[in-house]
Write a structure and sequence with these properties.
Strand content: 15-25%
Number of domains: 1
Number of helices: 4
Largest sheet: 6 strands, mixed
Helix content: 25-40%
Shape: elongated
Order of helices and strands: HEEEEEHEEHEH
Distance between the termini: 67 Å
Amino acid sequence: MLKQRLSRAHCFGVSLIMCSFLISQYNFLPVAAAQGMVVKKVAKSALAQDSTLNPASQQPDPTAEIVKDVSGVPKASVAVAAPVTTTNPCVPNGSYSTRPVGIALSSPETGLYEQHDAPYFYQVFGSTAEIIRQQLRECGPSKAYAAEFSYTINWSYDTNAIADGICKIATVKIGLRTQILLPAWQANEFEESILVTKWQNFISHTYMHEQEHVAIAKQYAQEMYSSLQQLTPGSCADISVVAASIANNIAARLRIAEQVHDDYTQHGITQGALF
């Protein structure tokens, strides 16, 4: 009876765009379920005359071939087309979202759940670097950015009564979903090799930069999971507040870490993400 009296439901949520409170249904007794989510869009690079580009997204042309190196990094998306006298307009990606839907933490098992989407692409054309840059401005995430990284981290946990007035955190579940938006360039078979090489260098270094953002997000998601798992039992009246504070603090530090990475690399410029 004591355990049933102590069963409560709580919900905590923080977002850069909005704050929402969601209560999930759990079939555990005694349980107080808490859930939160943070949505973040980062990793943008400036577009100058010979410029830097930031994460953005578009589904690849189904006829395009993604050329990869041995490590699996998309180095260029180049489809061979017949020579044309006019430049096709760029094609935005209509399915990419800057607010990835969080992972449904419906499994009864504790754990860190990750979903890293395959890169999204938007299509650009052009036979000169300047035309390509113009299309990056037109169909990228903004006139200043050509690529984009975004993530959603969400969490839930239960509070179980283990003694009179004492509870512990249980069934910790952390969800991390990441997305990367990149441009895909379609060239014809007569394209100058120097332009193809320039594009391949740009797209491979841009992808590498965004993968580093993914690694940072994974690091902080693991920290959140471990911190909540190891939280010392405490007052049933306070433990949910303490757990929510820990989760929100780590989510805030993740946001700062992603920004520091962009500041340090100048959004990938110092790493070669320059076209």
